[in-house]
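Page 42, continued from yesterday. The earlier attempt failed because a stray header line got pasted into the input along with the sequence. Redoing it now with the clean sequence only.
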Amino acid sequence: MRAVVTRVKNASVEIDGAIHGAIEQGFLVLLGVHVDDGPAEAAKIADKICGLRIFEDEAGKMNRNPVQAGAASLLIISQFTLFADCRSRRPGFTLAARPEQAIPLYESVIAQCRERGFHVETGVFGADMQVRSQNDGPVTILLDTKEL
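This time it went through. C-alpha coordinates are written below.
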Protein backbone atom coordinates (compact mmCIF):
# COMPACT_ATOMS: atom_id res chain seq x y z
CA MET A 1 0.00 0.00 0.00
CA ARG A 2 1.01 3.56 -0.52
CA ALA A 3 -0.16 6.61 1.36
CA VAL A 4 0.47 10.30 0.96
CA VAL A 5 -0.05 11.75 4.42
CA THR A 6 -0.39 15.52 4.70
CA ARG A 7 -0.64 17.34 8.01
CA VAL A 8 -3.60 19.71 7.64
CA LYS A 9 -5.33 22.48 9.52
CA ASN A 10 -8.54 21.28 7.80
CA ALA A 11 -9.58 19.17 4.85
CA SER A 12 -12.78 18.17 3.09
CA VAL A 13 -14.05 16.06 0.24
CA GLU A 14 -16.98 17.05 -1.96
CA ILE A 15 -18.99 14.64 -4.12
CA ASP A 16 -21.70 15.82 -6.50
CA GLY A 17 -21.57 19.33 -5.06
CA ALA A 18 -22.05 18.27 -1.42
CA ILE A 19 -19.50 17.90 1.37
CA HIS A 20 -19.16 14.17 2.08
CA GLY A 21 -16.45 14.33 4.75
CA ALA A 22 -14.52 17.04 6.57
CA ILE A 23 -11.98 17.29 9.38
CA GLU A 24 -10.21 20.00 11.28
CA GLN A 25 -6.58 19.55 12.36
CA GLY A 26 -5.20 16.10 11.52
CA PHE A 27 -4.10 14.15 8.45
CA LEU A 28 -5.37 14.05 4.89
CA VAL A 29 -4.47 10.54 3.68
CA LEU A 30 -4.50 9.55 0.01
CA LEU A 31 -4.39 5.74 0.04
CA GLY A 32 -3.54 3.40 -2.82
CA VAL A 33 -3.77 -0.40 -2.82
CA HIS A 34 -1.30 -2.53 -4.81
CA VAL A 35 -2.29 -5.79 -6.54
CA ASP A 36 -0.07 -7.73 -4.09
CA ASP A 37 -1.48 -6.12 -0.93
CA GLY A 38 -3.40 -7.99 1.74
CA PRO A 39 -4.44 -7.66 5.39
CA ALA A 40 -0.83 -7.45 6.63
CA GLU A 41 -0.20 -4.34 4.54
CA ALA A 42 -3.46 -2.76 5.72
CA ALA A 43 -2.43 -3.31 9.36
CA LYS A 44 1.08 -2.00 8.75
CA ILE A 45 -0.01 1.21 7.06
CA ALA A 46 -2.80 1.93 9.56
CA ASP A 47 -0.31 1.55 12.40
CA LYS A 48 2.20 3.85 10.71
CA ILE A 49 -0.39 6.53 9.87
CA CYS A 50 -1.77 6.62 13.41
CA GLY A 51 1.67 6.74 14.99
CA LEU A 52 3.41 9.28 12.75
CA ARG A 53 5.14 11.83 14.95
CA ILE A 54 4.95 14.89 12.72
CA PHE A 55 3.45 17.44 15.10
CA GLU A 56 5.73 19.79 17.01
CA ASP A 57 6.44 19.44 20.72
CA GLU A 58 7.26 22.32 23.09
CA ALA A 59 10.80 22.52 21.65
CA GLY A 60 9.50 22.86 18.08
CA LYS A 61 10.63 19.36 17.09
CA MET A 62 8.35 17.02 15.14
CA ASN A 63 7.92 14.61 18.01
CA ARG A 64 4.18 14.25 18.66
CA ASN A 65 1.72 11.87 17.06
CA PRO A 66 -1.81 13.07 16.23
CA VAL A 67 -3.29 11.89 19.53
CA GLN A 68 -0.60 13.68 21.56
CA ALA A 69 -1.18 16.82 19.49
CA GLY A 70 -4.97 16.75 19.93
CA ALA A 71 -5.36 16.19 16.19
CA ALA A 72 -6.70 12.63 15.97
CA SER A 73 -8.78 13.24 12.83
CA LEU A 74 -8.18 11.62 9.46
CA LEU A 75 -9.71 12.19 6.06
CA ILE A 76 -8.88 9.02 4.09
CA ILE A 77 -9.41 9.11 0.33
CA SER A 78 -8.90 6.16 -2.04
CA GLN A 79 -6.30 6.99 -4.69
CA PHE A 80 -5.52 4.23 -7.20
CA THR A 81 -3.31 6.62 -9.19
CA LEU A 82 -0.59 6.26 -6.53
CA PHE A 83 0.37 3.08 -8.39
CA ALA A 84 0.57 4.69 -11.84
CA ASP A 85 3.18 3.32 -14.21
CA CYS A 86 4.51 6.45 -15.88
CA ARG A 87 7.12 4.97 -18.20
CA SER A 88 5.07 6.30 -21.10
CA ARG A 89 3.26 9.62 -21.29
CA ARG A 90 -0.06 7.93 -20.64
CA PRO A 91 0.03 6.30 -17.20
CA GLY A 92 -0.98 2.68 -16.80
CA PHE A 93 -2.66 1.36 -13.68
CA THR A 94 -2.12 -2.40 -13.81
CA LEU A 95 -0.33 -2.33 -10.42
CA ALA A 96 -3.38 -0.81 -8.70
CA ALA A 97 -5.70 -3.37 -7.12
CA ARG A 98 -9.12 -3.85 -8.70
CA PRO A 99 -12.08 -2.66 -6.61
CA GLU A 100 -13.06 -6.16 -5.42
CA GLN A 101 -9.63 -6.42 -3.74
CA ALA A 102 -9.00 -2.77 -2.93
CA ILE A 103 -12.30 -1.83 -1.26
CA PRO A 104 -12.06 -4.35 1.61
CA LEU A 105 -8.44 -3.34 2.29
CA TYR A 106 -9.29 0.38 2.15
CA GLU A 107 -12.16 -0.25 4.57
CA SER A 108 -9.85 -2.28 6.81
CA VAL A 109 -7.43 0.63 7.13
CA ILE A 110 -10.34 2.93 8.03
CA ALA A 111 -11.65 0.47 10.64
CA GLN A 112 -8.21 -0.01 12.19
CA CYS A 113 -7.71 3.74 12.52
CA ARG A 114 -11.12 4.07 14.16
CA GLU A 115 -10.25 1.21 16.55
CA ARG A 116 -7.27 3.31 17.66
CA GLY A 117 -9.64 6.12 18.62
CA PHE A 118 -9.30 8.30 15.53
CA HIS A 119 -12.19 10.26 14.07
CA VAL A 120 -12.16 9.15 10.41
CA GLU A 121 -13.98 10.76 7.52
CA THR A 122 -13.81 9.30 4.02
CA GLY A 123 -14.55 9.82 0.40
CA VAL A 124 -16.43 7.26 -1.70
CA PHE A 125 -14.34 4.62 -3.42
CA GLY A 126 -14.31 5.23 -7.17
CA ALA A 127 -16.27 8.48 -7.01
CA ASP A 128 -15.29 11.73 -8.71
CA MET A 129 -14.19 13.73 -5.67
CA GLN A 130 -13.07 17.28 -5.10
CA VAL A 131 -10.58 17.32 -2.22
CA ARG A 132 -9.63 20.53 -0.44
CA SER A 133 -7.06 21.02 2.27
CA GLN A 134 -5.26 23.72 4.17
CA ASN A 135 -1.85 22.16 4.55
CA ASP A 136 -0.02 22.73 7.82
CA GLY A 137 3.69 23.35 7.44
CA PRO A 138 3.47 22.06 4.79
CA VAL A 139 4.36 18.58 6.00
CA THR A 140 3.75 15.72 3.58
CA ILE A 141 5.05 12.17 4.11
CA LEU A 142 5.10 9.31 1.59
CA LEU A 143 4.54 5.83 3.01
CA ASP A 144 4.95 2.54 1.16
CA THR A 145 4.47 -0.75 2.99
CA LYS A 146 7.25 -2.30 0.90
CA GLU A 147 9.63 0.16 2.60
CA LEU A 148 8.24 0.04 6.15
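Notes: The chain is about 20% helix and 40% strand.
Reminder to self: strip header lines before submitting.
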